[in-house]
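Hey all, sorry for the wall of text incoming. These are the two entities for the joint prediction.
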Amino acid sequence: MTNISRRGLLKTGAAAGVLAATGMPVSAMPKRGGTLRLGLAGANTSDSWDSRTHSDSYMIMACHGAVFDTLTQVAASGELAGELAESWEATPDAKTWTFNLRKGVTFHNGKAFGADDVIESLNMHVAEGAKSAAKPIVSAITEMKKMGDHQVQMTLKAGNADFPFLLSDYHICMYPAGQVDEAIANGIGTGLYKVESFNPGVRTLLSRVDGHYKDGKEGWFDSVELIAINDSSARMNALMTGQVDAVNRVDFKTEPLMKANPMINIFEVTGNQHFTFPMLTALEPFNNVDVRKALKHSINRQEMVDKILLGHGAVANDIPIGPANQYFASDLPLNDYDPDKAKHHLKKAGLDGLKVDLSASDAAFPGAVDAAQLYQASAKASGIDINVVQEPADGYWSNVWLKKPWCACYWSGRATEDWMFSTAYETGVPWNDSGWENARFQELLLTARAELDSGKRRMMYHEMQALMSSEGGTVIPMYANYVDAHSTKLTNSGTIGNVFQMDSSRLIERWWFA
Amino acid sequence: MASILKIIAQRLALGVLTLFVVSVVIFTAVNLLPGDFAQAILGQGATEEAVNAIRKDLGLDQHPVSRYLSWLGGAVQGDLGNSFAQANFASFVGSDAGSGMASVAAQIGPRFENTMFLAGVTALIAVPISITLGVLAALYRNSIFDRATNILTLSSISSPEFFLAYILILFLAVLNPMLPSLSNIYDGMSFGERFEKTLLPALTLTLVVTAHMMRMTRAAIINLLASPYIEMARLKGLSPMRVIVKHALPNALAPIINVIALNLAYLITGVVVVEVVFVYPGIGQLFVDSVKIRDIPVVQACCLIFAAAYILLNLTADILSILSNPRLRHPK
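and here's what came out:
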């Protein structure tokens, strides 16, 4: 799927229509009807229809996945497709982008969708005092021009070939201009489903909009009930007893029981979600590349996947780019578990042995403390003494992550290489949790960003991943799968998105009752 | 009667004092927990700048004492403040356009009704069952029936609530699909549906509270059976059932009422685990969610409700036991 020319796709978006048309296999004919009931973890009493604040699965599914739309979307196949934007084109420097918006789209309150809505919705992220996670994306836009009712031109600070990809982010939903407050209060979007009732952290009821631009392609359920079930046993029970049709985040411990139930299907995808152990490379002893290499060879990655993820994952090679990325370098030599190599690197660093603290808490990822202890055990063979420091889960991200020299962490991954690198590995960015600074890496990052030629980008991203894998300051042992389950009453096109859990959060739009 | 009114007044005054102490303790405890609302809500994305912005919005940058005093000032006027969870997001758009749930009262109100409904259903099941069982156990004391009842109720009270809940789910929802394992009740449900959905959590709670009430009933009655007036009743030739129900039970009411009140209070305050297991949208679940994100105003309000439930039910129990005892009703 990564062989389709991204140049053509990115530059014109002409392929968007083709992709949408081929997304559906001929064998399964979807049909309308029924009420979909979802039991979802990740709900909070602080939930609202403000997409800028979303970070957990419940609201991402309800907002981005049903009630609101974004300009572009990542199709189940992994390719970029248009959602509210029909097509787009860029100048050769990838600096100026023109988006042609879909015509005849209305918000749930009847207001017509147009260029003004795009401009105001994007400006929400850079408004004074706004705490949006998509701020870095939108603040890269220096100018937005309305070229017509259904055309917007955006000029960027610097060329970015991935720009249309970034606009598929679930934070950047389209709100009605001049009615943003009302839309956030009541959930007024352009999506397939409109809000009937919304009780934060408890229950949301949605109903299908009549006459929608996605008619015939998506949106098969008449209504959708999203039930907040944060307790994992209760969630699994609800599916087992048929009170919901699908659940997210399957509990690995009860997964064999669910597998045994003929009425239930487990669906599992390997995406970009990965668990990491970042070390602050500015500090002793992690400032020594050989120490980092020794640590990379002292972890038994397969054992981590088997014991921490119970097999629901894949071995990672110290790169934050995953199988759901376009330019994932899967052919790099693996940093395998090899105490001899580790000893060799320690020797090169002029050390006989090494004693380091590793801070961990299950707040970093489920099983982080166990993972740290496994690491401790496997590193003994290389003469490295890892002291596992168990940190309190509360305040972990404020007090431990980015502060302690070496700790456990997780990343959900990003849709594009540039986005992931510029979030956590670019020189000087606030979330660079390993303090990674490498001149060549940085140079490639900037060049690749503005490069529209797919082949050249592939080579550059490959080199960057090779650099990270061999010298980077982050040990990334594994990708964690998204494991969800559904009743056999539900069915889908056969292609499940791997950007996020639950078919990239778009199960509501894409699935139907068999 | 005047003395009873005096007792009520005294106890209410003491109750208010207790509530005050509870609020201080809770406020201190929540502040001692690592992390605050801003850090909890931002999670991994907690940059210094964003944390400070939220703290400033919510007044979390002020000294805890002044924060407590301003909360107390509002609370005595009946204003429990605004929930951080919703207030925070209203401030994103610069206007008060939250989902209309910003005030603590608005957020707790419906949840409290749900919890009361669950407590009510449980009480309706548990109280008659435990008193009947207690009376029967006293009547047939040391028989097989007595022992079996004791073993069953004691083992159910000794098991953790979530375990009982899962056992009931296994037998009544998974193996024999009679009742729903998910108690997601919501507005607009008919009473029948609501009752059906509430039944499993109510049964779980019944198992938890029955032993206490049943054993107290049994003990109080047996205690009285040695009294001379009971012997008199027996000598008159009354049936054992009549002796217990007509002669012993009225005199045993005071301790039984006390235990019932204590257990009713538990039904309001102790439902946290059961609500989480059954996804019942009551005050217990709200409490857990709010502690998780350090939403202090909601946590405070929940605790005050819990404390008030204990105080009021204890007061009711005392009054009822006075009223049920002629000697206390007419003191010299």
